[in-house]
Amino acid sequence: MTTKLDLMEEAISLSNYHFDKDRIDPRFDGAQVLGRFEGDWSDEVEQMIAISKTRSFGTRNMIDSQVNNDKVELDNPTGSKEDYQKMIEGFRPYEKEFFDKTDLDYYGYPIINKTNQIGPKVTSLFKAFKLTEPSTYTVHIQKVGQVFPYHIDFFHRRRWKDAPQEKIIRIQVMLNDWQPGQCLGYGNSVYTGWKAGEFHTFDHVSVPHWTSNANYEPRVSLLITGVKTDETEEFLYKARTSKTIKI
Q1: Domain with 123 in it: what CATH number?
Q2: Is residue 81 part of a domain?
Q3: Strand arrangement of the beta sheet that strand 147-151 belongs to
């Protein structure tokens, strides 16, 4: 039986991060900016904000089905509720313990809004990375006052357990311009000042991270996860060595 803090302690033990709040290590602390898309997808951003649903820690991987009112798991290719429950079993006790010690509601406190319904322009951003299948995406819409607390990701342990870990990448494409008060934290560094289209990655296995929005404008980003191919590497080289990638 997994105890409340086993998984978080295991994640820390497996991490290469320093966990020293008085130290900045450029290998870990901060977003690794990869490039920037050039284009206008603002109409799709407005639509995604309008249709997004509020999610808590307890419901963050659930989406509203486009077919009916059932809840299915965003990163589960079968869409099976039973498979979803098996996948997340034991993943969240450390989060639940934190919420049990506060006045916040684990299933009710809004950390983010989400949607997986994207238009053709944003779809082209996702497809540009040419990740192997299965790959996943979701759109994060963080509204004023929403906070996604400090955590370490666990998804790679089961979702891509047979893939070479160095090939798994998590990319965040910023879909609208930064506004004062919006923050993404990676380790001991805060990422701000982005422009729409800028995309970055980070060491998702090791680095604790968090997000918050203290601005009245929503922060919107496309979060992509998958396994890199040779075509992915070619695209990332082009992105690093080009001013922008036109979409």
Answers
A1: 2.60.120.10
A2: yes
A3: 147-151, 209-213, 182-186, 189-191
Whether residue 164 has a cis bond before it, omega within 30° of 0: no
**CA dist., res. 206 & res. 192, Å (int):** 21
List the single range of 54-68, 69-83, 153-167 with lowest mean pLDDT: 69-83
Question: Are 154 and 187 in contact, with CB atoms under 8 Å apart?
Answer: no
Q: pLDDT, tens digit, for every residue of 198-227?
A: 999 999 889 999 999 999 999 999 999 999
Number of domains in the chain: 1
pLDDT in tens, 89-101: 555 566 666 667 7
Residue whose pair of structure tokens reads 């296995």 in the numeric block = 205
User: For position 91, what pLDDT does the model report?
Assistant: 52
Per DSSP, 131 falls in state P
Give the alpha-carbon dihedral of 57, 204, 40, 180, to 10 degrees: 70
Q: What integer pLDDT is reported at residue 218 of this predicted model?
A: 98
Tokens of 18: 């320093």
| Residues of the domain holding 170 | 6-11+32-246
Q: Please tell me the distance from the alpha carbon of residue 63 to that of residue 54, in angstroms, as a whole number.
A: 10
Residue 1 domain-assigned?
no
